[in-house]
Specification:
Elements: H1 4-10, H2 14-35, H3 37-40, H4 47-71, H5 76-86, H6 107-130, E1 138-144, H7 155-162, E2 164-170, E3 177-183, H8 185-192, H9 196-205, E4 208-210, E5 216-218, E6 221-223, E7 228-234, E8 240-243, E9 250-253, H10 259-274
Parallel strand pairs: 1-2
Antiparallel strand pairs: 1-9, 3-7, 4-5, 5-6, 8-9
């Protein structure tokens, strides 16, 4: 039962338990289900597609039935309704609490997919800031950071999600700029009092260090993750860039739109209207 849900409930921290469930539902709905639509809609006359379709439904069934048991203490009626429709029989409140040790576990896959989602989220934020609608194709997305070779197999997924022609993975972060630390004054001030200005000055001077646990040490003070944010001091390169969470990687979009890309974007808009 060593899951984030179980740990939160063991501490009677229902607010954190709700937060974990909401975050999980967001990932399930806006990532797994949305990205698996082609599998759910696959034709039954292709054996490989049919097997993939069955696997997708089996996975979703397992997730929903497990989630109904996890959410039952906080959503008793809704969880019972979901459980009844999917499983039947006794009430969900008579079912055993799920044991995460009995479920398939692939930490590397989870970590890789979390990084892919972070890349896509940051790149979409760049698109939004540059007012480049998602149906307008772009030429290249570059992701710079350490240990990106393991994401090579997800290039096509990233390209499709962001509507870009090419995805480049590199370790040359410095080509796109340098990370800057921005302490959040409204949070740091009450916590540090008179030392706040010293921390602000240290951040401006670049006198800070990112720790392995996600905290930052600046001017001999340790800031937790809710007390700061990272920015990117952009280098003189074409396009637009944004740091990923953790200040170790950056995404860069080639924002130059030529006539070919513009025409393809208009075609996508037309197809969307027809649909």
């Amino acid at each position: 039962q060593n899951s984030p849900f179980g740990d939160a409930f063991d501490r009677y921290d229902l607010a954190m338990g709700c937060e974990h469930i909401a975050s999980f539902l967001d990932a399930l709905n806006n990532w797994y289900i949305r990205r698996s639509r082609s599998r759910f809609w696959a034709a039954d006359n292709d054996p490989r597609a049919l097997q993939s379709k069955q696997d997708a439904f089996d996975t979703l069934y397992t997730v929903l039935t497990t989630l109904s048991r996890v959410a039952a203490p906080m959503l008793p009626l809704l969880a019972d309704e979901i459980h009844d429709r999917l499983v039947g029989g006794d009430s969900v409140h008579l079912a055993s609490w799920p044991d995460s040790a009995e479920l398939p576990d692939d930490p590397e896959l989870v970590e890789d997919m979390d990084r892919v989602r972070e890349i896509c989220s940051s790149a979409l934020a760049v698109r939004d800031a540059e007012r480049l609608r998602i149906r307008l194709p772009l030429r290249t997305l570059t992701v710079a950071g350490p240990d990106l070779a393991r994401l090579d197999g997800y290039r096509d997924l990233i390209a499709e999600e962001l509507n870009v022609k090419n995805v480049v993975l590199t370790d040359d972060v410095g080509h796109f700029g340098s990370f800057v630390l921005r302490p959040i004054g409204a949070v740091v001030g009450p916590a540090l009092g008179g030392d706040t200005q010293e921390v602000m000055a240290g951040a401006r001077a670049g006198d800070w260090m990112l720790n392995d646990d996600g905290t930052v040490t600046v001017a001999e003070h340790t800031l937790t993750e809710d007390q700061f944010e990272f920015g990117l001091e952009a280098a003189d390169v074409e396009g637009a860039a944004q740091p990923l969470p953790g200040a170790r990687s950056v995404v860069h979009l080639d924002t130059d739109v030529d006539d070919e890309l513009r025409a393809e974007g208009r075609a996508r808009d037309l197809i969307r209207l027809v649909q």
